[in-house]
């Protein structure tokens, strides 16, 4: 009996000792966690220390994969007649003050030539934490420590040399375009602003160095002029000429002309920068859900090099700062104007992606008529001498990982078949993302999780992959395989859920067209009414004289009133059609 009590006492003592050890371990973990939080805050990376630790371990495991940027080979390929016409790069910015206040952590790793997004996830138990790693490979990838000059050297600088370099012979005019694309607030306007300043210095330096080459553009034989305009809500406005409305016309030779656009000659880098500052200050910006000062228009700066004697164009460089992209879920609380802007922006970005891909694949058909942005840049797409650089900017915050993945997917699709200076020419994706084209990254992730250990059921993540470009792609390309891309894990993409989004994009496009027609008709009606009013005044003056024909007066007055009635009814019909589209857009916005 005593032995049994001794055994019980021993078990109790052992349990108490184990409990004390657990308490000590818990205390040590709390102290360690507090120290990690303090170190993370000191390093400017607040947030959940568990996720920060997972990201840090991933970076430690992959630290040796980073490669140096090959600038010389890239510049050489850009200056010659090379098949590699597209350069796609990404740039990550540091965490900003707003993200630090929200205690977001750095969830993006850039190891040239790959960019990886670490999406924070919880397993089905709601407690266990893990990271979903999505990696993409590009021509160049720049982290937060890279300067704008580093980006410029690998993207825009070779294009300046290409446009101002040796003539290609015959009537071939070298054309190049640099695009800055990304989520609103990701730093694309900052990047493009720095590139514009460097272009200002580099253009005149190149022209000066070419003075000893009779076949190239030089200060002696070439003028440099600048035109800056924006595309806002389907309207084109000259940013260097009092924001005057412009029209896009196409002449008999198929050349696209922006009617009324003024060009200003720049004779020095200082004059160049003054014009740039004036145009950028006039650009349209509005506050959105994601950014207090968001660029809501596509700003296009065209630098044209013309023969000083004949005025013939010898080269053209376009610097395009695209409007900030937003997901449909971020525009639900917007008013109609912001929703219309967002839909028009996403539609034009999809059209731009298809045009750039057509250039890189040497496709015979380039769908440049899908939007005004691509129509204006037609010569940069259809010309055999066209070269393009795309700079995708990334937000590193953990709350923006879904936006960042969408930005990387957009850039990845532009050049999904080949990358100029990648680690493996036959593979455009890193080993962390081994997927064939057109396969949904969401479905790829299911397989990747299952290989790690046992299959894990992940909660509904459909919102994380609500990519508006997939939906727009279905509208414009009539892609029958869209159902495989739209759905999340364990949820089939149902046609009734996708149809409202398709209808609202089509309605917004029709709304923009109808708005332009209504404004044009209203303006013409005002002008014609003014002319008729002047003629009425002449009739009254004539009828009050001594020699007048009352029959002629009555006849002409009746014609004037009939014409006014026709103008009024036509304008009312157009206004009624516009109001119907407004109501339809409001209804569809409530469904989405």
Give the helices and strands, then pairings.
Elements: H1 2-42, H2 49-61, H3 71-79, E1 86-92, H4 97-101, E2 108-111, E3 114-122, E4 129-137, E5 140-142, H5 148-154, H6 156-164, E6 175-182, H7 188-209, E7 222-232, E8 235-238, E9 244-250, E10 256-259, E11 264-265, H8 269-281, E12 285-286, E13 294-295, E14 298-307, E15 313-321, H9 336-360, H10 372-376, H11 378-382, E16 386-394, H12 401-414, H13 441-452, H14 468-477, H15 483-486, H16 495-543, H17 550-591
Parallel strand pairs: 1-5, 1-16, 6-15, 6-16
Antiparallel strand pairs: 2-3, 3-4, 7-8, 7-11, 7-14, 8-9, 9-10, 12-13, 14-15
Helix pairs in contact: 3-6, 5-7, 6-7, 7-8, 9-12, 9-14, 9-16, 14-16, 16-17
How does this model look, in words?
This protein has helices at 2-42, 49-61, 71-79, 97-101, 148-154, 156-164, 188-209, 269-281, 336-360, 372-376, 378-382, 401-414, 441-452, 468-477, 483-486, 495-543, 550-591; strands at 86-92, 108-111, 114-122, 129-137, 140-142, 175-182, 222-232, 235-238, 244-250, 256-259, 264-265, 285-286, 294-295, 298-307, 313-321, 386-394. By secondary structure, the chain is of the alpha+beta class. Strands 1, 5, 6, 7, 8, 9, 10, 11, 14, 15 and 16 form an eleven-stranded mixed β-sheet that branches. A three-stranded antiparallel β-sheet has the order 2-3-4, sandwiched between helices. A hairpin with a 7-residue loop joins strand 12 and strand 13 (294-295). Helix 5 (148-154) crosses helix 7 and helix 9 packs across helix 16 (495-543). The model is unreliable at 72-83, 417-469 and 474-501 (pLDDT under 50).
